[in-house]
Amino acid sequence: MGVNNMDNQSSFYQQIDSIHFPAPLPKTLLAVEQHFDAPSVGNVAEATVNALTESDLLDKMEAGGSVAVSVGSRGIANLSTIVKTTVDTLKSRDLHPFVIPAMGSHAGATAEGQTEMLANLGVTSASVGAEIRATMDVTQIGDVSEIVAGGPPLYQDVYSVDASHTLLINRIKAHTSFRGSIESGLAKMCAIGLGKQFGAADFHRQGVKALKTYLAPAARIYERNTNVVGGLAIVENAYDDTAEIVGLSAAEIGAEREAALLVRAKSLMASLPFSAIDVLVVRELGKNISGTGMDTNVIGRCKIPRQPENFGGPDIGTIAVLDLTAQSHGNANGMGLANVTTARLTRKIDWQAIYTNSLTSGVLGMWRASMPLAMADDARAIQAALLGCAEPPEEAKIVLIRNTLALDTMWVSASLRAEVDAHPRLSVLDEIALSFDDGIMVSPWEMER
To answer: How many helices (H) and strands (E) does the chain have?
Structure first.
């Protein structure tokens, strides 16, 4: 007779509930503020209109035509305002916009899941004034091998194909798996976002090589073979706010203009301010925070087979991640970047969602979807991380952050005080007690400003 799955789960949680390896935890932490040079657009709606008009994108679309406005799965600042303003501006030019999800295999690779993910990002028919049309059906529009030998086939969402024009909206940022002149942005949204699961799977099958080699050539195929007129490229500052909105034509996507915006985006990125951290405690990971749950550019871990592990960032001994954001819908992709997690996080995992995302990502997703050591609660998870950091726990340099997007406030152990005082971007706000309620951390999170 087979063993009931619920019995297996119950046994798993019963066993880890009995595991406890004590280590001394600090009684207090320093609340530290990090200051960044952070330009901001100010009026997001006005900046959106300017980007559309100054780039001549509106003039490239014939009045009376339909426009598929492509929106991704990332938690972009002011996204609903940017999409609504775009929709309103298109309507003012006698165009007929609708919104499509352009997010590859995310949200369980279902139309319903992708519509729900847009809603969680604030993009609904009611909020932006346009119909949401979601499908996983695609049409093949070409092949990168037309330009570069060995390149993958390329696809386009069928609603996008049927429209008169397609306009992309996406953030330009450093990718979490590779370094190149073109990383995350509009070219990637074409090949992988509009390509849905078919495009994402075919592109990722060759791993990092495909991303480095084929994104720019793919953009030329979309320029030549499709109705993509261009897009709005968003650059964010270190406070996760809108720094710039720039309109790019189809010819500029995947070319020098997008590459220059990537350089700009990298210069504005937030970072952890220490060269070495013994234990990093991350309150939450999530797909709305990064495609890898925790941004690899921040934590300096790559976790891709056959790729160098040094990905920039600080030298971190162990990472403990405590929870999963609700906006992730159970997709805990990126937990494999941590060493320790909690039973609370594992109970929220939708294994179908995380495996679909991981297997579609190919070699890029395998290690990152692995479950780390799971401890019964926050306190035990941090103690386990302390025991594994290769430093005496009472001397360990400990940093707590809410997530890898929120680095303006952090909480650090007294062992980092000298480094904080010497750092030009850091200032101490307060000294706060570290406290738990039935093993779940209460402070310093309750002290967030």
So the answer is: 15, 17
Does 362 have pLDDT greater than 80? no
CA dist., res. 150 & res. 449, Å (int): 51
pLDDT exceeds cutoff 80 at 293: yes
Per-residue pLDDT band for 1 (boundaries 50, 70, 90) equals: very low
For residue 282 the two structure tokens come to 């991350």
* Cβ within 8 Å of residue 166, ≥6 positions away: 67, 68, 70, 156, 160, 194, 226, 227, 228, 229
Question: How large a percentage of the chain has pLDDT more than 90?
Answer: 68
Q: Which two tokens stand for residue 48?
A: 């959106």
DSSP of 199-227: HHHHHHTTTHHHHHHHHHHHHHHHHHHS-
**Cβ atoms within 10 Å of 150's Cβ, excluding its own:** 11
Using alpha carbons, select from 350, 340, 332 the residue that is nearest to residue 376: 340
The CATH 3.40.50.11440 portion of the chain extends over 44-267
Superfamily of domain 44-267: LarA, N-terminal domain (3.40.50.11440)
